[in-house]
Amino acid sequence: MVARIERLVTSGTFSLDGGTWDVDNNIWLVGDDHEVLVIDAAHDAERIVQAVGDRRVVGLIATHGHNDHINAVGGVQAVLKRPVWINSADQMLWSALYDELPDHDLKDGAEFTVAGTTLKAVHTPGHSPGSTCLYAAELDAVFTGDTLFHGGPGATGRSYSDKPTILKSIRERLLTLPEGTVVHTGHGDTTTIAAELGNIE
Asked: Which residue among 39, 54, 75, 187 has its CA within the 20 to 30 Å range from the CA of 81?
Protein backbone atom coordinates (compact mmCIF):
# COMPACT_ATOMS: atom_id res chain seq x y z
CA MET A 1 0.00 0.00 0.00
CA VAL A 2 1.35 3.44 -0.91
CA ALA A 3 1.11 6.54 1.21
CA ARG A 4 -1.68 9.09 0.95
CA ILE A 5 -1.31 12.85 0.66
CA GLU A 6 -3.07 15.24 3.02
CA ARG A 7 -3.14 19.04 2.79
CA LEU A 8 -3.41 21.41 5.72
CA VAL A 9 -3.74 25.15 5.00
CA THR A 10 -2.55 27.66 7.60
CA SER A 11 -2.47 31.45 7.54
CA GLY A 12 0.13 33.92 8.73
CA THR A 13 2.73 36.31 7.37
CA PHE A 14 5.85 36.22 5.21
CA SER A 15 8.58 38.75 5.98
CA LEU A 16 11.71 39.57 3.99
CA ASP A 17 13.63 42.67 2.91
CA GLY A 18 11.74 44.87 5.36
CA GLY A 19 8.27 43.96 4.10
CA THR A 20 5.54 41.72 5.52
CA TRP A 21 2.67 40.09 3.61
CA ASP A 22 -0.33 37.98 4.61
CA VAL A 23 -0.11 34.47 3.17
CA ASP A 24 -1.89 31.13 3.20
CA ASN A 25 0.48 28.16 3.17
CA ASN A 26 0.02 24.54 2.17
CA ILE A 27 1.45 22.01 4.59
CA TRP A 28 1.71 18.53 3.12
CA LEU A 29 1.46 15.35 5.16
CA VAL A 30 2.55 12.18 3.38
CA GLY A 31 1.96 8.83 5.05
CA ASP A 32 -0.68 6.46 6.35
CA ASP A 33 -2.44 5.78 9.64
CA HIS A 34 0.81 4.83 11.33
CA GLU A 35 3.56 7.19 10.12
CA VAL A 36 3.85 10.50 8.32
CA LEU A 37 6.31 12.96 6.81
CA VAL A 38 5.58 16.67 7.35
CA ILE A 39 6.53 19.09 4.55
CA ASP A 40 6.75 22.83 5.35
CA ALA A 41 5.53 23.39 8.91
CA ALA A 42 3.96 26.84 8.57
CA HIS A 43 2.33 29.25 11.03
CA ASP A 44 0.35 26.98 13.36
CA ALA A 45 2.25 24.31 15.28
CA GLU A 46 -0.80 23.24 17.27
CA ARG A 47 -2.87 22.48 14.17
CA ILE A 48 0.01 20.55 12.62
CA VAL A 49 0.50 18.46 15.75
CA GLN A 50 -3.25 17.77 15.82
CA ALA A 51 -3.20 16.72 12.15
CA VAL A 52 -0.33 14.33 12.83
CA GLY A 53 -2.21 12.78 15.74
CA ASP A 54 -0.59 9.70 17.21
CA ARG A 55 1.30 8.80 14.05
CA ARG A 56 5.07 8.39 14.09
CA VAL A 57 6.70 11.35 12.36
CA VAL A 58 9.51 10.31 10.01
CA GLY A 59 10.76 13.87 9.83
CA LEU A 60 10.02 17.54 9.27
CA ILE A 61 11.12 18.73 5.82
CA ALA A 62 11.47 22.38 4.80
CA THR A 63 11.43 22.99 1.05
CA HIS A 64 13.22 26.30 1.68
CA GLY A 65 14.08 28.75 4.42
CA HIS A 66 11.55 31.57 4.02
CA ASN A 67 9.99 32.24 7.39
CA ASP A 68 6.45 31.38 6.30
CA HIS A 69 7.59 27.83 5.54
CA ILE A 70 9.53 27.22 8.75
CA ASN A 71 7.99 29.41 11.44
CA ALA A 72 6.08 26.51 13.05
CA VAL A 73 8.96 24.03 12.88
CA GLY A 74 10.24 24.95 16.34
CA GLY A 75 6.85 24.48 17.97
CA VAL A 76 6.19 21.21 16.18
CA GLN A 77 9.63 19.86 17.00
CA ALA A 78 9.26 20.83 20.65
CA VAL A 79 6.21 18.56 20.90
CA LEU A 80 7.07 15.73 18.52
CA LYS A 81 10.86 15.59 19.08
CA ARG A 82 11.57 14.68 15.47
CA PRO A 83 14.45 15.80 13.19
CA VAL A 84 14.35 18.69 10.73
CA TRP A 85 15.86 18.74 7.23
CA ILE A 86 16.60 21.89 5.19
CA ASN A 87 19.15 22.51 2.45
CA SER A 88 22.24 24.16 3.93
CA ALA A 89 22.28 26.81 1.18
CA ASP A 90 19.33 28.40 3.02
CA GLN A 91 21.14 28.51 6.35
CA MET A 92 21.08 32.34 6.42
CA LEU A 93 17.27 32.30 6.16
CA TRP A 94 16.93 29.61 8.82
CA SER A 95 19.27 31.50 11.16
CA ALA A 96 17.18 34.67 10.83
CA LEU A 97 14.49 32.81 12.79
CA TYR A 98 16.27 30.16 14.85
CA ASP A 99 19.41 30.17 16.99
CA GLU A 100 19.93 26.41 16.81
CA LEU A 101 21.02 24.69 13.62
CA PRO A 102 18.62 22.29 11.83
CA ASP A 103 19.27 18.60 12.39
CA HIS A 104 20.17 17.63 8.81
CA ASP A 105 21.22 19.08 5.47
CA LEU A 106 18.56 18.32 2.84
CA LYS A 107 21.00 17.31 0.12
CA ASP A 108 20.09 16.68 -3.49
CA GLY A 109 19.22 13.02 -3.92
CA ALA A 110 18.37 12.39 -0.25
CA GLU A 111 15.59 9.84 0.11
CA PHE A 112 12.86 9.44 2.71
CA THR A 113 10.67 6.38 3.08
CA VAL A 114 7.25 6.68 4.67
CA ALA A 115 4.38 4.19 4.55
CA GLY A 116 6.26 2.16 1.94
CA THR A 117 6.70 5.17 -0.34
CA THR A 118 9.96 6.91 -1.25
CA LEU A 119 10.35 10.66 -1.65
CA LYS A 120 13.53 11.96 -3.28
CA ALA A 121 14.99 15.43 -2.73
CA VAL A 122 15.52 17.44 -5.93
CA HIS A 123 17.56 20.62 -5.45
CA THR A 124 15.90 23.44 -7.44
CA PRO A 125 17.60 26.74 -6.58
CA GLY A 126 16.23 30.06 -7.73
CA HIS A 127 13.42 31.07 -5.39
CA SER A 128 16.10 30.68 -2.75
CA PRO A 129 19.56 29.11 -3.00
CA GLY A 130 18.49 26.00 -1.10
CA SER A 131 15.02 25.48 -2.53
CA THR A 132 14.40 21.75 -2.78
CA CYS A 133 11.45 19.75 -4.11
CA LEU A 134 10.41 16.26 -3.06
CA TYR A 135 9.48 13.79 -5.79
CA ALA A 136 7.39 10.73 -5.02
CA ALA A 137 7.33 8.63 -8.19
CA GLU A 138 5.00 6.02 -6.68
CA LEU A 139 2.44 8.75 -5.96
CA ASP A 140 2.92 10.55 -9.29
CA ALA A 141 3.53 13.64 -7.15
CA VAL A 142 6.11 16.34 -6.57
CA PHE A 143 6.08 18.80 -3.68
CA THR A 144 7.56 22.01 -5.04
CA GLY A 145 7.43 24.53 -2.20
CA ASP A 146 7.66 27.93 -3.91
CA THR A 147 9.66 26.77 -6.95
CA LEU A 148 6.73 25.94 -9.24
CA PHE A 149 3.12 27.05 -8.91
CA HIS A 150 -0.13 26.71 -10.82
CA GLY A 151 0.67 29.24 -13.56
CA GLY A 152 4.46 29.29 -13.51
CA PRO A 153 7.59 29.81 -11.45
CA GLY A 154 7.83 31.14 -7.92
CA ALA A 155 8.79 34.73 -7.19
CA THR A 156 12.37 35.91 -7.66
CA GLY A 157 12.16 39.60 -6.82
CA ARG A 158 13.63 39.44 -3.32
CA SER A 159 16.96 38.75 -1.65
CA TYR A 160 18.74 35.48 -2.42
CA SER A 161 16.53 34.75 -5.46
CA ASP A 162 17.35 34.69 -9.17
CA LYS A 163 15.00 34.32 -12.13
CA PRO A 164 17.37 32.66 -14.63
CA THR A 165 18.31 30.14 -11.95
CA ILE A 166 14.73 29.19 -11.08
CA LEU A 167 13.82 28.83 -14.75
CA LYS A 168 16.83 26.56 -15.31
CA SER A 169 15.87 24.48 -12.26
CA ILE A 170 12.29 24.08 -13.44
CA ARG A 171 13.23 23.22 -17.02
CA GLU A 172 15.96 20.74 -16.13
CA ARG A 173 14.68 19.18 -12.93
CA LEU A 174 10.87 19.44 -12.89
CA LEU A 175 9.58 19.64 -16.45
CA THR A 176 11.56 16.47 -17.17
CA LEU A 177 9.29 14.52 -14.79
CA PRO A 178 6.38 12.54 -16.27
CA GLU A 179 3.73 14.94 -17.54
CA GLY A 180 1.04 13.40 -15.38
CA THR A 181 2.93 14.22 -12.19
CA VAL A 182 0.77 16.27 -9.84
CA VAL A 183 2.49 19.40 -8.52
CA HIS A 184 1.69 20.06 -4.86
CA THR A 185 2.65 23.68 -4.28
CA GLY A 186 3.59 25.76 -1.26
CA HIS A 187 0.65 28.11 -1.81
CA GLY A 188 -2.57 27.83 -3.78
CA ASP A 189 -3.89 25.10 -6.02
CA THR A 190 -2.20 21.98 -7.28
CA THR A 191 -1.33 21.64 -10.95
CA THR A 192 0.47 19.12 -13.19
CA ILE A 193 3.75 19.07 -15.01
CA ALA A 194 1.83 18.92 -18.30
CA ALA A 195 -0.17 22.03 -17.42
CA GLU A 196 2.98 24.02 -16.64
CA LEU A 197 4.96 23.12 -19.74
CA GLY A 198 3.62 26.20 -21.52
CA ASN A 199 4.00 28.54 -18.54
CA ILE A 200 7.78 28.58 -18.39
CA GLU A 201 9.65 31.13 -20.50
From this structure: 187
